[in-house]
Structures are given as structure tokens and as C-alpha cells.
Amino acid sequence: MRHSRLWTWHIIAGIIILTLLGLHMLIMHLEALTPKALNPAGGEAVDWANVVARGKMVFFMITYILLLGAALYHGLYGLNTIVGELNIRPGLKRCCAAVLTLMGVGLFILGSWAAVAARTAAMKM
Amino acid sequence: MSETKKMIIFRVRKFDPAHDAAPAWKTFQIPFTKGMTVLDGLHTIKQTQDPGLAWRYSCRMGVCGSCAMLINCKPTLACNTQVSAVSEKEICVAALPNFNTVRDLVPDLTPLFEKHQAVKPFILREDKTEMDNPTGEYEQTPHELEAYLQFSYCIRCGACMAACPTFATDRDYPGPMPLAQAYRYSSDTRDGGFDERMKAVDRSSGVFSCHFGSECSAACPKGVDPAKAIQLMKRRLVWDYLRLLKKKKPCDLIHGERATGRRDNIPEAPEYTIPQK
Known about the structure:
The complex is a heterodimer of chains A (125) and B (277). Chain A has 125 residues and is mostly helical.
């Protein structure tokens, strides 16, 4: 398998994480600079009205899923690399890679479901 | 009036796998002379105190790369290292780490040469006829030469492999020297073997296992920067995957007025001394 493909996505995932964490900093901690659309109720970002308003937006649901996917891929790829450097048998290495992949896919499905469910709940409020 | 000679202590790690269970350090005291290299010191020990001491050397001037060994915990060339530059009192000498020891200071460099061979360290082109029977010179500008020139100064001494922390733990990793050579040939405008060569390095335990510790570059006695070559190789592979790499055809023979055939004063290659497969 071309390892450059995995590595390239590792870097892309890192860039996505950095960008979305920057967005998180902007919204949650630099309220004076935050566009009105991201904190529609005004006031503090952690006010209940703002939390519900953001929860209703498709944009935030997508960014949650994107951040989850990027963080899982970036972290589990790094973990797989560390496991690969432990001088273990090739069979065990492949087994660890398979377990980490399944774990990543499972957590991604669970997290994505949670993000969609949170928006559904917010829409009812 | 008698002159007191300055003495220096050499601690040499001796090991004969055929007879010894484990390596053992042996101490020698020899007279220090101005300009003395570590290789000179080993010769003095062999001539005066331990005729059985084994090490590998050839050119004595930092060109062949045979005498790489661990000198005061640093992998470097014994012929290129002045005793006075290392220590005034004691020099510790051992075989290169990350390799098996054949005897005393002689490392078994078979893995190094196997990994080197795997990256196809030669010009790969489709025009086999021209390669076998050259009729002229390939066109390459000085600027294009600069792209790989420093990596071509590698003498395959193995110092970088001995310093590499990744190679120390992962024997499947190609190591700094083969990876630097893979980049050196892939960045040569005369070469067209990037895709073929990448099969050897773009894999698990391949080029992406490098942690960029740069110990290889610090250890290189010829000033080559293998860590840089590895990072450039990573970038090239990422660009290639994203289809952003501008792939050029290998350069052509020089045509027109500047075209020169083979000069008359270049002697023919001698006959092979060993049968060819």
C-alpha cells in the first residue's frame, strides 16, 4: 500500500483540526471578534440561547463530525505508528492496525450519530 | 635531559563472536604524537601491544568510508578524526552500533548494502541502448546539478545508519543513507525511475518512519544532510499523491552545435573480472 496516502491524510487531518480549533477559539473565547451569525443571541457564547441556536445550525453539525473524523484519524494513525515501532511481530502489528481501524470507525459512527441527535433535539426547542 | 612523552589511553571494545560471550573493553596506553589520528593510534596498538586487534580501513583520507567506528560515542571516520580533537586523555573506540559485529571494530555492513541496493541507486531510463552504449552526454544545467550534488558526496560509511534512532529500533526501516540516495537519484534530471524507486521507500517502515531527529546529518563525516533528503522525499511523495508534482521527462542528449560524441581519449572499460549474470 502507498504509505504516502495515509501520511498525506494525516497532515490534512492535522490542518483540519488546527482550523476547527481556531474556529472554536474564535467563537468561545474571542466573542468580540465573533460574527453575529455564530452567536445569534448576543451576549456570552456559553449562554443557553446561543448554545441552542448553534445546535440548530447544520454548519456546526458538519464541523462536529468533521472534527471528530479528523481527530480520530490523526490520533489513531499516530497511535498505529507508535505501535508499529514497538518491534512486535508483523501479525500482531496487522492485528493492532485492524483493531484501531475498527475502533476508529465505531467511534466515528457513534459520534456522528450523537452530533445528528443533538441537532434533532435542538430543533425541537 | 630526557623528554617525557605524552601518553594517551585508548579503550577499545573487543569482541570475537566465535569465542566471546559478550564484548569487553581493553585499555591500551600509547604515546601521543602531534597530528595523530584515531586510525594511527589503532595502528600503533596493533604494532606494539595487540597484534590481533581487527578493524577495517583502506584509503586513510576520508574517501573510502571503510574505517567508520564509534569514537567517544560518536560514529565517525577514524582516519578523519584527530586524537587531540576528541580528547586529551582517553579515547573510547567501538564498532558501529546498529550493526552486528564481525570482530572487534569491524561491523557487518551487509544490511546497509542490501538496503542501498533495494532503492536502485543508479540512473534508470527507458533508453537502454543509449545507457549501454553511450553516444553523447545528457543535458543538465549547473542549477539542476545543485539539486542533488551534496547527496552524491555520500561515501556509504554507515555513520548515519549507526546514529539513526529509527534504524536502531526498526530493522525494516531503510535508514538515512539508502533514503538519501533514493532522493539523490530521483532528483537527478537524467533519471526517470521515480515511480520504480518509490516502491522501495513508500511503504510501512519506509520513508515516513523518519522522526527527523537529524542525528544522521550531525554524524555524517562528509557534510551530507540525509535528514534534509528524507524530508524532501516526503514532500515529493505527498505532492505526487495529491497529483501536484510536475513530472518531467528525463533530460535528453545534447543536440545541435554543443553535441559532443565520446571523446577519443577516454579509455575503454576493462574486461569484467568476475562472470556477469
